[in-house]
Amino acid sequence: ASCVQHRLVVRDASSLQLLQLYTCLDQIQYIEWSSDSLFVLCALYKRGIVQVWSLEQPAWHCRIDEGSAGLVASCWSPDGRHILNTTEFHLRITVWSLCTKSVSYIKYPKACQQGVVFTKDGRYMAVAERRDCKDFISIFVCSNWQLLRHFDTETQDLSGIEWAPNGCVLAAWDTCLEYKVLLYSLDGRLLSSFRAYEWPLGVKSIAWSPSSQFLAIGSFDEKVRILNHVTWKKITELDHPATVASKKTIVYKEVEKSPTVDRERLSFPPTRELASSLFSTQSKYDISQVPVSLQYVKPVADRANPKVGVGMLAFSADNCFLATKNDNIPNAVWIWDIRKLKLSVVLEQLCTIQCFQWDPCQPRLAVCTGTSRVYLWSPAGCVAVQVPGEGDFQIVSLSWHSSGDSMVLLSKDNFCVCYLEREEV
């Protein structure tokens, strides 16, 4: 699904054939599929309205108007039959049922980085709350929206919460001014708390491994700390130095070259294919000899939100690899072998890393840098792929299909679908 101003366009994922076209009341600011792909939600934040469309019954439609309360966020519940709307100033969360048309309210949600999270099996929801100048967490049962647990947290200013994939442990972390990670059980018991240091800036990013065995914490001191699920103690620290010195680490460096054109083929005016090959540069990877000095950017200390520390973390689907980005070294992706707890690969790009995401089915990482190329890494090697098309298609974000056979590449105004062929075994 994609939106063009006030129109919602639904296409077939394999053929891109147009299936449905819906018209909303105003410009669409957010869209989200239900878990069973039967409904799609369109949020019109400026009007405080959510419109829901059905794929099975195109004539059916639903409109939810929050009125004077306004709307700042909207999402589906895991069952795909309830919609959670957050009103302006985070006064409350309204739970709307598509089946019974009933309405429930959750008061005092906290405006933070990540305040509403569901377990992977969709049974429970955790909500960060702020009341009487204190932080709380409420855990709800998603089947009937009954409150299961409500407890306060030992935080000054709760920044976010995240469930482990197995749904047994909830991680909560404090503001960046206070390094503190708290781990709670489903019944609200504090299992452990972790503090790496006291006074400098603290936690910047957090990621659970798919097996729930590891919790990776990215910090402003340019390190990743990994906790184990048995004792919740640190098992290792992963540094991000500006110089890669280990001979066991492979450094792939992106290089550009102008293509060579056979002079006998030159004709004026040149054909479209020849013109595109004449004036476009090609990109490939070279393996650099260690030690390698990476481009290091010194942060501006007197500005808010300095570009410093590990801001992006992601585990591969098989738990074997961890990809990280240190904002001080914006052009590099670090890939760590979790089995050995060692740095395996560094990808040094020509431009700043905008986004990376793992293939959901195998250890294959896709990276984009705001150019018209997408970069793929796997244990077999690394490749740069030019996106065909006219004009300058600058990829700023990407998203894998759940099957791992294709991915969506997004620019500011356009998108394209990249299909990957499977090798015959």
Q: Which term fits the overall shape?
A: globular
What's the story with the biggest beta sheet? 6 strands, mixed
Percent in strands: over 45%
Strand order, biggest sheet? 26-25-31-30-29-28
The CATH superfamily of the largest domain is YVTN repeat-like/Quinoprotein amine dehydrogenase
Point out poorly predicted stretches: none
The average pLDDT score comes to 92
CATH architecture of the largest domain: 7 Propeller
* Cα radius of gyration in angstroms: 24 Å
Please give the alpha-carbon distance between the first and last residues: 33 Å
In terms of structural class, how would the helical and strand content be classed? mainly beta
CATH class of the largest domain: Mainly Beta
| Strand elements, count | 38
- CATH topology call of the largest domain: Methylamine Dehydrogenase, Chain H
Question: What do you see in this structure?
Answer:
There is one protein chain. The chain is globular, with a radius of gyration of 24 Å. Helices cover 2% and strands 48% of the residues. It has three domains: 107 residues, YVTN repeat-like/Quinoprotein amine dehydrogenase (Methylamine Dehydrogenase, Chain H, 7 Propeller); 129 residues, YVTN repeat-like/Quinoprotein amine dehydrogenase (Methylamine Dehydrogenase, Chain H, 7 Propeller), CATH 2.130.10; 165 residues, YVTN repeat-like/Quinoprotein amine dehydrogenase (Methylamine Dehydrogenase, Chain H, 7 Propeller). Strand 33 and strand 34 form a beta hairpin. It is an all-beta fold. It contains one helix and 38 strands.
